[in-house]
Known about the structure:
- By secondary structure, the chain is an alpha+beta fold.
- The chain contains nine helices and ten strands.
- Strand 7 (254-262) and strand 8 (265-272) form a beta hairpin.
Amino acid sequence: xxxxxxxxxxxxxxxxxxxxxxxxxxxxxxxxxxxxxxxxxxxxxxxxxxxxxxxxxxxxxxxxxxxxxxxxxxxxxxxxxxxxxxxxxxxxxxxxxxxxxxxxxxxxxxxxxxxxxxxxxxxxxxxxxxxxxxxxxxxxxxxxxxxxxxxxxxxxxxxxxxxxxxxxxxxxxxxxxxxxxxxxxxxxxxxxxxxxxxxxxxxxxxxxxxxxxxxxxxxxxxxxxxxxxxxxxxxxxxxxxxxxxxxxxxxxxxxxxxxxxxxxxxxxxxxxxxxxxxxxxxxxxxxxxxxxxxxxxxxxxxxxxxxxxxxxxxxxxxxxxxxxxxxxxxxxxxxxxxxxxxxxxxxxxxxxxxx
Length: 355
């Protein structure tokens, strides 16, 4: 026998046991066996029927003489309860994920603050070194005019050359540390690339790397912010150096930079022979805070910032990579973006000369 609510589990049929859910039919069969064997027990089962989640509990029915007459099965609809339980579990998992992200963000923020402090300190040091270098250069030039010994001028020329080399490095450091501005003008991409490579070559990671800089003098001038483009190039090249350092020490390491003019866009390709990336990593490479480097060795912001700086001038950045074979970063920028961008003083005249 079943009441109307229980009959719903069998599609409204009260007389056919097999119309009930299979798990309930199996449970009832077990209870009938217990009755025939003279055993008595309580049981609890769960089953789903027509979108309902039901918990059913079976209890023996006894007469006045404690003889078992049969079983009563009482079912309770726990659909809403299970839904709340599932929602709570999902919220708990989301909270745990957010807490983990916040923890990582705090670590990354502390690291960025430290890097900013180091950068500010390095800028101050570079500025202070510049003054004594200028004095040394003046002294070397003065001595060069006074000496008479034939071999000494060559030695002084060598000293002057090294002083100028140090000065060049310091000037590049100071130019990179300048606050980014919104000054756009007509620039030569070749010049920016050569300037960036000249600075990167002093990095210790570049000592075993062969640089292949393929200059293209047929490229037109481009309207962009040179500091932004230099920052993009620097981010990508440093990533390439890190990828090559991660390979075996005796492996061949090459950084190749080419440029071309395709479909009214300047296309620059930066290829390395580093460890490469899986396609899943390539798809996430431009996400903020995404990095495969250890904590303290990368913030996950370099490619994210680069992507947005290039997008600002209606450009594109793409990645081509294969594990173990290296990566190629493709940067495409139009000669002139569609949107209006702020120019620096005199840029209007420069634009007129280049149109």
